[in-house]
Specification:
By secondary structure, the chain is of the alpha+beta class. The protein has two domains: 8-114, Nucleic acid-binding proteins (OB fold (Dihydrolipoamide Acetyltransferase, E2P), Beta Barrel), CATH 2.40.50.140; 138-212, Winged helix-like DNA-binding domain superfamily/Winged helix DNA-binding domain (Arc Repressor Mutant, subunit A, Orthogonal Bundle). The protein has seven helices and twelve strands. It is globular and about 55 Å long.
Length: 215
């Protein structure tokens, strides 16, 4: 009997940029080795549904999930009830097995929950930031500021806060807007944003949009 593995919470980019390992033992599940060196056969990801396809015979449903780090397909075959009630634009939490077909990593869903309270997205992001730091992946935003010099400009952290504050018209500022307006590399920007979220300086009312706390 194959042991049921724990579903590991990750960002989508950690799956799609990981290395898929096909095991030789039929009793051991295939898995992905993430950039954090986690071995994941079952995963749990949260994001917004950006597209959905259902075959004419209802035997195949494919939804595309976006968590602002990357996108991934969630595919159900034959027994597709787990995805039938899901609509584009909804935020969902998916538990499932990591699979690969024709070079593409995807998730075979076991359980799907629709997220009504968007505060759970912030909770998940904080969980992942804490995990990153525990596994030694990312330095603090202060370390990024010390590493990257911007002559004649405000520190990167201050520039991010300023763009979010001045660019918010009510629904928050899009991630891509912060990238363009600050000119900060995405890898460095992710570190700064994650620290600002943890410190309570900003929050994420919708996936990929940011607002100043108490603004």
């Amino acid at each position: 009997m194959i042991e049921r593995k724990t579903a590991t919470k990750v960002r989508i980019k950690d799956l799609v940029k990981g290395e898929f390992i096909k095991t030789e033992d039929d009793m051991e599940p295939n898995y992905v080795v993430t950039p954090l060196n986690e071995m994941i056969s079952r995963t749990r990801v949260m994001g917004v549904v950006v597209s959905k396809f259902t075959s004419e015979d209802d035997k195949y449903v494919n939804v595309t999930l976006d968590d602002s780090s990357e996108i991934i397909s969630v595919r159900a075959f034959r027994d597709t009830d787990v995805l039938k009630g899901i609509e584009v634009g909804e935020n969902i939490d998916v538990v499932g097995k990591v699979k690969k077909y024709q070079g593409e990593i995807y998730i075979f869903p076991e359980v799907v929950h629709i997220i009504e309270d968007l505060n759970w997205e912030l909770v998940r992001r904080l969980e992942l930031v804490i995990k990153d730091k525990t596994l030694g992946k990312k330095p603090s935003s202060k370390a990024v500021e010390d590493k990257v010099e911007f002559e004649g400009e405000a520190p990167p952290r201050d520039r991010v806060l300023e763009v979010i504050k001045t660019g918010d018209e009510g629904e928050g500022v899009k991630y891509i807007t912060v990238v363009k307006e600050t000119g900060i590399k995405e890898e460095d920007l992710d570190k700064i944003i994650n620290d600002l979220l943890v410190e309570g300086e900003i929050y994420e009312p919708k996936i990929g949009r940011f607002k100043i706390m108490n603004d």
